[in-house]
Amino acid sequence: MLSAMAGGDVLAAVLAALRPQLRSNQLLLGPSERLVYGYDNSKRYAEPGAVVLAESHHDVIAVIKACAEHGLAVTARGRGTATTGASVPSAGGMVLSLERMTRILEINTADRYARVEPGVLNGDLQLALAPLGFFWAPDPTSAPYSSIGGNLACNAGGPRTVKYGAARDNVLGLNVVDGAGRYWPTGQFTSKGSVGFDLTRLLVGSEGLLGVIVEATLKLLPKPTASRLMRASFQQVEAAAEAVARVMAQANTPSALEFMDAKALGLLRRYHALDLPQGDALLLLEVDGAANTIDSQAAAIQAACQVSGLLHFEQATDARQGEQLWAARKALSPTLRLHAPKKINEDVVVPVSQLPALIRGVYAISAEFGIEVVNFGHAGNGNVHVNFLYDPANADQHAAAPLAVRALFKLVLSLNGTLSGEHGIGLDKLPFMAEAIPAETLSRMRDLKRVFDPAGILNPGKVLPMP
User: Fold this and answer.
1) In the chain, how many domains are there?
2) Does residue 449 fall inside a structural domain?
3) pLDDT in tens, 412-453
4) Domain membership flag for residue 431
5) How far is CA 430 from CA 45, 75, 204, 387, 435, in A?
6) Domain ends where: 44, 69, 100?
7) How far are the Cα atoms of 174, 185, 203, 333, 368 from residue 198, in angstroms, in the given order?
8) Is the model's pLDDT at 6 over the cut of 60?
9) Is residue 77 part of a domain?
10) Cα–Cα–Cα angle for 344, 283, 161, nearest 5°?
11) Cβ(464)–Cβ(434) under 8 Å?
12) Domain of 90?
């Protein structure tokens, strides 16, 4: 259990235990040094008592053992790109930063795996793999500056998830330090195995509540030799959803299937003067694989998009045109910050057949609460990023925004959906977990938390609501 001692006394005891084991530049204690480790991309902030910059799994073991002995909270942190407050030290205590653990330990192309430390950036790994003809599938927007450990903690995805899966589907094994300071491995080096409990998949997506990942064995995939991007515009969202269902029902799964609604398209035209077709919905569709299969794959995608309500369909004729088509999708998130002082981005998921009901419901919520909304996301998975845009200086909008979010989650659950596809729960969605997960299931999750983290020190106050 977290200590009932005075916070300063507990921290002092932990630091006294750690100083002989760490170099002086691994401990950050000054106010300005601690400041930058108190927030993440959610813009939430909480001040940590101290920061440790771990350089090896031995450092992680030492920190967790000392904190467990004295009941001090520990928040593990990668690069702070989380959008839900998962790496904000809301309970104070110690921030355990893994940013210095950046070694790519092994790349084995014969057996298609890579062993990495948690601080390796996703983008840096992709750069190391590309000349060898391989890649790691998760490709979040933050890939150039998000760490592998963070990607695994929240089960990150991205556009390629529709074909290649999210982080959980692309990890073979982990080395972990749990909440008692015990160091142990999970998984195997093979892509197939049926031995014991699958603790690897349990740990991926657990947001640091069960253990701190200090090494990961990642599944590599051969890099496709060719790809082609297409876009299709539709008169209404229902037509786009029908096309998505038809595309996902044919034999060749696209490597990306992205959705943008009319308001997203309007903003891109307004701020970037992009040449975008008219319509209430736009799909970006990509196929990849061997060069001699691209024409047939693209033809099958085009045929599947021939639904009533299709306005326009085009295929990129070269790589440059493909990059231009992607430019619209990649410009969306920063464009929203240009358009409004504040945005709330919820990455909800519904069955593909329920996409029209979700978008109609979101527009109704927007009208009811007077909050502008823009929708885009990974249509092939039913994963939509619903963005509520408002001015926090406007008292009415500031009060209405959390009510709009609650209404969104109620709508999503009524459509047999789920609260998050790739961002996780953290602090932001914690109040809604009791509505999303049955009480008995939450109870079993708490049981697991106690097994892995007996003292309850790992990232307390996140994901699991109090009973």
Assistant:
1) 4
2) no
3) 999 999 999 999 999 999 999 999 999 999 999 999 999 999
4) no
5) 16, 17, 18, 19, 10
6) 100
7) 11, 12, 9, 35, 45
8) no
9) yes
10) 70
11) no
12) 7-100
